[in-house]
From TrEMBL:
Keywords: Disulfide bond, Signal. It holds the Pfam family Thaumatin. This is Thaumatin-like protein. InterPro entries: Osmotin/thaumatin-like_sf, Thaumatin, Thaumatin_CS. It comes from Deinandra increscens subsp. villosa. Disulfide bonds join C30-C221, C71-C81, C86-C92, C143-C193, C151-C161, C165-C174, C175-C180. Residues 1-21 form the signal peptide.
């Protein structure tokens, strides 16, 4: 029979605590249906006013939640979306197709901090807010400008507004070499949504942190 010492019990308790999931409450405040996509998490149809509570494991990296619009799915969960489509699946297994507004995050990273951001590097389709709701963390972020209505002609796409990287795929806009700066087209996004990533190297003004274990709201059309 295994004998549990106090130190073993404390270690198990610590491991249990460290793997506690964060809860992301995804709310659709838009006057139209939005199909939420999430990696990890899959996806769910959210009619106006509906919410989806998503548990995400501690230590998760490279995660994102995004809105999909004008979708049609059959009974097996196959179909397509005009924006944010993920290989024609209701339950996303990979990131969505631009343009789509992104809520990105990594949990329990450096110094046990959560890192979170709103990114327009894949363009914009639906206004979005990303707000911590626990842990004493109060600094939320949002992108609520009428980017679709004001989108430059060269970036317009059905249902959304593309980021210039998506359209031109050059190092100037995509930072493929790891060295680039803001452009007139990226400034279009930054001026309207100063908290959001407007190009891939937009870290200093666009990455936010909360203590690990914080819960969050992701709101479409806040």
């Amino acid at each position: 029979m295994t004998t549990f010492t106090l130190s073993t019990f404390l270690l198990l308790a610590l491991l249990f605590h460290s793997t506690k999931a964060a809860v992301f409450t995804i709310r659709n405040n838009c006057p139209y249906t939005v199909w939420a996509g999430a990696v990890p998490g899959g996806g769910q149809q959210l009619n106006s006013g509906q919410t989806w509570a998503l548990d995400v494991a501690a230590g998760t990296q490279g995660a994102r939640i995004w809105p999909r619009t004008n979708c049609n799915f059959d009974g097996s969960g196959r179909g397509n979306c005009q924006t944010g489509d993920c290989n024609g699946l209701l339950q996303c297994q990979n990131y969505g197709t631009p343009p789509n507004t992104l809520a990105e995050f990594g949990l329990n990273q450096f110094n046990n901090l959560d890192f979170f951001d709103i990114s327009l590097v894949d363009g914009f389709n639906v206004p979005l807010a990303f707000n911590p709701t626990s842990g004493g963390c109060t600094r939320g972020i949002s992108c609520t400008a009428d980017i679709n209505g004001q989108c430059p002609a060269e970036l317009r796409a059905p249902g959304g507004c593309n980021n210039p990287c998506t359209v031109y795929k050059t190092d100037q806009y995509c930072c493929n070499s790891g060295n680039c700066g803001p452009t007139d087209l990226s400034r279009f996004f930054k001026e309207r949504c100063p908290d959001a990533y407007s190009y891939p190297k937009d870290d200093p003004t666009s990455t936010f942190t909360c203590p690990g274990g914080t819960n969050y709201d992701v709101i479409f059309c806040p």
